[in-house]
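The authors assume throughout that readers already know how a fold can be written as discrete tokens. The format is easy to grasp once an entry is in front of the reader. For illustration, here is how one protein appears when written out as sequence plus structure tokens:
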Amino acid sequence: MNISFGTAERRGVAVALVALLLLSTVTGVAAAQSVRGASGTVVVEEGETVSSVDALAGSIVVRGTVTGDVSGVAGTIHVVEDGRVEGSISGAAGDVRIDGDVGGDVSAGSGNVRVAETAAIGGDVSVGAGYVRIDGRIDGDVRVGAETVVLGPNADIGGEFRYDAVRFTQDPAATVAGGVVEDSSLRGEVGSFTVPDWVATGYGLLANLLLGALLLAVFPAFSARIAGRVSDEPAKNGGAGLLTLVGGPILLTLVAITVIGIPLAVLGAVTFGLAVWVGAVYGQYAVGAWVLRRAERDDRWLSLVAGLLGFAILGLVPIVGGLFVFGALLLGLGALASELRDSFRARRRPGPSDRQTTFDESFGDSNAGSPPERTTGGR
């Protein structure tokens, strides 16, 4: 199989990579009733009021007022001294810093958590972190699991302070109304945070789009033939996909039985996992190509976007959506396994290599890329 990588393909890869870079660098300023989405930085400016923040971002900064909750995955979550969150804060971040007011609870998994002397938290605090310093007012209970925990001189805890730490320091001036309790059972139980469904779906779609763009750009003919296989023989490829999905782990287990086979089994497991991912992307792309072809549109890039976006939406439907996504996986994995097998056999046969397969030919238009036949005139 000859692989070509021309200007158009390089441009497609570049567009995909630039899209990822833009996602991580763009700065979004909160200007609506609620903030929801992915951005480089989300800022609620001073004097501004929003109803809630639910974001995947490099930083979430609250200088104004959030009347509801703040939830997100970020490098930094910071409520500045004049900032106010009337609801609760729930997040996963590298750093969480509270300098202002939080009316509800604070629940976070973080590398560092700091509650400054100017901070006031109306609810409970539950955090898991590497380093935690509390030097402000907390009206409720505190549960902390960390390597290092410090209660500063301005700490004023209205409830109980329960902790699990390798190093714990309490300033004599700190006030804890409910007492301080060391509790080793807290390990691994505090600071838990569930990533919102929309974040997981968006991240999965973005990763699949990037993988699909790379596959179409680097292996255009191979990808086109897989789409053709799915269109021509869906039942056969679905069966092959199920056989591959079940037989792969069994084969890896048999290889791992011997000591010398353990490294091969580990490498094989990684390869098999990647193959399943590639198969899932190919299956969704092939279905998208089939649907667009019914509408007389032959565009591999549009097929990729339509297929992946369509199945991402379907995946949100309970049970039924999962069955459709699983079906696309079987179709793509079966077509991938069959195409790899046939390509391997073709390489072993003597003779010239085949030319590149076009998108039209992959769906059965065998004359799409052939030169016109020579005809002879009649009498």
Remarks:
- The chain has two domains: 29-186, 197-362.
- Helices lie at 7-25, 197-218, 220-232, 234-256, 261-294, 300-314, 320-348, 359-362.
- The first strand starts at residue 27 and ends at 29.
